[in-house]
Design goal:
Number of domains: 1
Number of helices: 8
Bound molecules: D-xylitol-5-phosphate, zinc ion
Low-confidence stretches: none
Order of helices and strands: EHEHEHEHEEHEHEHH
Strand content: 15-25%
Distance between the termini: 7 Å
Structural class: alpha/beta
């Protein structure tokens, strides 16, 4: 059965001086859930926010929170992120910890688990993990910063992953440089989840609803039938 189309704002690109309003505005505008990029300056060369901020915005929406974890040691962040209100944690592959047991720890804590493939990580690396995850996030930029251009060169990997996922209940996302121009490209390749920071927040609050709606229309119009 076809996986639903999901449009997910990344608050990394929100106006931090009005963060609460920015969360509420995209919720009302039709966001399916929220993408939270937690960076500690070691996994990527940037710092963002952690459990305290997630806890602060948790009461503002009923939609799920999904943490894209770029902080180490990953195992130590699972419980604080759960307590702060996270519903799913996405782990980067290729780090210095055992991915399988860390995914199992996320599941044991009562959250959902997913993985993130950086641009140099091949599609095949997901194979041993498919029974533990319900989400694969293909990075379409170098991780760490919003506002970078979308890497169309990742689209063959998206298509390969779509074939590997087959009938499994796993969502396939693109993350980075996703906007009204690039949603169709990713949808054609096989993505059903579209994570966008700048592509949503840069249009201004009066146009969030229109932008989310148009992203969804473009995704649905371009997704191959039956995937
Ligand atoms: C980059 C993050 C993205 C980021 C995307 O490391 O994974 O989630 O927020 O930002 P945009 O949509 O601005 O490229
Ligand atoms: Zn992200």
């Amino acid at each position: 059965m076809a996986r639903p189309t999901h449009i997910i704002p990344s608050i990394l690109a929100a106006d931090y001086t009005r963060l609460g309003d920015e969360v509420i505005s995209v919720d009302v505008a039709g966001a399916d859930r929220f993408h939270l990029d937690v960076m500690d300056g070691h996994v990527v060369k940037n710092l963002s926010f952690g459990p305290d901020l997630i806890r602060a915005i948790r009461p503002l929406t009923h939609k799920p929170f999904e943490v894209h974890l770029m902080a180490t040691p990953a195992l130590d962040w699972i419980e604080p992120l759960r307590q702060a209100g996270s519903d799913r944690i996405l782990l980067h592959l290729g780090q210095d910890f055992d991915t399988k047991s860390t995914l199992q720890a996320i599941l044991a804590a009562g959250m959902k688990a997913g993985i993130v493939l950086a641009p140099d990580e091949p599609a095949q690396s997901v194979l041993p993990l498919l029974d533990l995850i319900d989400f694969i996030n293909v990075l379409t930029v170098i991780p760490g910063f919003g506002g970078q251009p979308f890497m169309t060169g990742m689209m063959p990997k998206v298509s390969e992953l779509r074939a590997l996922i087959a009938e499994r209940p796993i969502d396939l996302a693109v993350d980075g440089g996703v906007n009204l121009s690039t949603v169709p490209i990713a949808a054609q390749a096989g993505a059903n989840v579209f994570i966008a920071g700048t592509g949503i927040y840069s249009v201004g609050a009066t146009r969030y609803a229109e932008t989310l709606k148009n992203m969804r229309i473009l995704a649905d119009a371009n997704r191959p039938t039956g995937v």
